[in-house]
Design goal:
This protein is an alpha+beta fold and 351 residues long. The chain folds into two domains: 5-197, 2-Layer Sandwich (Ribosomal Protein S5, domain 2); 205-350, Alpha-Beta Plaits. It is built from eight helices and 13 strands. It has helices at residues 90-99, 128-147, 153-167, 226-231, 239-259, 262-281, 292-308, 331-337; strands at 20-34, 39-40, 44-45, 49-67, 76-81, 84-85, 110-118, 179-182, 196-197, 210-215, 313-316, 322-327, 346-350. Strands 1, 4, 5, 6, 7, 8 and 9 form a seven-stranded mixed beta sheet that branches. The protein is globular and about 70 Å long. The structure holds ligand 2P0.
Length: 351
């Protein structure tokens, strides 16, 4: 079933508020195979995207809520990361709370203490905003279930993604395993710009036990925020052609995931990663997030594939780190020919 924006608005008033509540939630990160790059309106994507959900990179979040005597106009909250108060993160969360007020008006009835930690290293370049906002969205839906008359599971699942999207676009895809599609595509059933969905088809077993080993070429804060990068797509000289390409790639990717066409999966995944970075390198102003070692590792992966035929490929996020994608059964060989020769920390995750 398709949900519209107004379906997620809930004006009902809770009968009685519990004085204290503690809600826990966790959510995974994800890596896009076909990239979301460019947005419009209220966090609506310029094109559909498709991702693998990362099982081990999780945000674990706890919200401690205290009922207020009367609702406030701005949500009162404090955010703790790794048990330390983090005022730097609070403006983005405040913006999120503001954006979701119509869909979850009950959030203003409480004072919030939000504590979060990640199961992956801090500043590793793994998108913690995706898992972080998805976990927070799950907490809000849990609260909605406790306070307002119940709705269907499908409603709640889609609303988690809908809310997460308003925190960070890619967070829309951080709500279910193993693959999610976000963004309307006329030829892919039930897709929507408002939330991500699981594919209607079964993912081919060659993608069971797929691995994503992330080579940490560069740790630390991103040099150009992704939000700024998305905005540069508005006047990008290749905007229309990129849009067309992403629609085609999304459809092709669904076919490869369904049929288990690893060869074309590899070609398309790498083409998408390079398109994303080419868009960054051709925007105004332009910028380069790859580092020399990013390219070195890309070349190594291509050499290995050429020489040994191993089904391994790379993708890139908005940063210098290389995500190495491959089936689990070639892990040992890859350790020998690739990871043991790399002078960077590698985090092994799986889809
Ligand atoms: C993606 N990225 O599809 C693309 C590809 C990074 C590279 O979406 O402004 O943190 O919060 O919507 O989601 C990263 O950008 O940006 C991103 P906002 P977000 O995963």
């Amino acid at each position: 079933m398709e949900f519209r924006e107004q379906d997620f608005i809930r004006n009902a008033k809770p009968n009685q508020l519990p004085e204290q509540l503690v809600i826990n939630a966790s959510a995974p990160s994800n890596i896009a195979l076909v990239k979301y790059w460019g947005k419009h309106g209220l966090q609506l994507p310029m094109n559909p995207s498709i991702s693998f959900t990362l099982n081990q990179a999780q945000s674990l979040t706890t919200a401690r809520l205290t009922a207020l005597d009367k609702p406030v106009s701005e949500v009162l909250f404090k955010f703790y990361f790794d048990e330390k108060h983090q005022p730097d993160f609070e403006p983005k969360i405040a913006g999120f709370f503001n954006k979701i007020r119509d869909y979850a008006p009950f959030i203003t009835a409480f004072q919030w203490e939000i504590s979060s930690r990640n199961t992956f290293p801090h500043s590793s370049g793994i998108a913690s905003s995706a898992s972080g906002f998805a976990a927070l969205a799950k907490i809000i839906i849990d609260l909605e279930k406790q306070l307002l008359p119940l709705k269907s599971d499908e409603y709640y699942n889609k609303k988690v993604s809908f809310l997460a999207r308003l925190g960070s676009g890619s967070a829309a895809r951080s709500v279910a395993h193993p693959v999610m599609i976000w963004g309307y595509h006329p030829n892919i059933k039930n897709t929507s710009d408002l939330y991500a969905v699981l594919p209607e088809f079964d993912i081919h077993p060659v993608f069971n036990n797929f691995r994503d080993s992330i080579v940490l070429v560069e740790k630390g804060q991103k040099k150009v925020s992704s939000t700024a990068g998305h905005n540069l797509m508005n006047n990008h000289p290749f905007k229309d052609i990129r849009k067309k390409q992403a629609f085609e790639h999304t459809l092709q990717m669904t076919k490869y995931l369904e049929t288990g066409d690893l060869e074309n999966f590899i070609k398309l995944t790498e083409a998408e990663a390079l398109s994303l970075h080419a868009l960054m390198m051709t925007s105004a102003p332009n910028y380069i997030l790859m580092q020399p070692d990013t390219l070195k590792i890309i070349h190594q992966i291509r050499e290995i594939r050429k020489n040994s035929g191993l089904p391994v490929c790379f993708t890139l996020d908005a940063g210098a780190n290389v995500h190495v994608l491959y089936p689990e059964n070639i892990s040992k060989q890859l350790e020998e020919v690739l990871f043991s020769k790399i002078n960077h920390e590698v985090i092994h995750d799986f889809v």
